[in-house]
Specification:
68 residues, mainly alpha, 434 Repressor (Amino-terminal Domain), two-stranded antiparallel ribbon, 2 strands
């Protein structure tokens, strides 16, 4: 099972909230480089990280991520 970001939704949601990648990473307690890799689609996401990002962006996980 792989969890990946729905890139256009993820980026649009981050920008709509007014967050830079660094700010989102800080709020989700993740590294900036990890958020960058997620947005580019170069990295899969663990369930705990997906939860932290969805909480920071205040949007349900199933709207930000897909399971493959």
């Amino acid at each position: 099972m792989k969890i990946i970001a729905i890139k256009d939704v993820f980026i649009r949601t981050r920008i709509t909230h007014g967050f830079s990648q660094r700010e989102l990473a800080r709020r989700a307690k993740l590294s900036h480089s990890y958020v960058s890799l997620i947005e580019r689609g170069d990295k899969t996401i663990g369930p705990a990280s997906a939860k932290r990002l969805s909480e920071a962006l205040q949007i349900p996980m199933d709207q930000l991520f897909q399971i493959r």
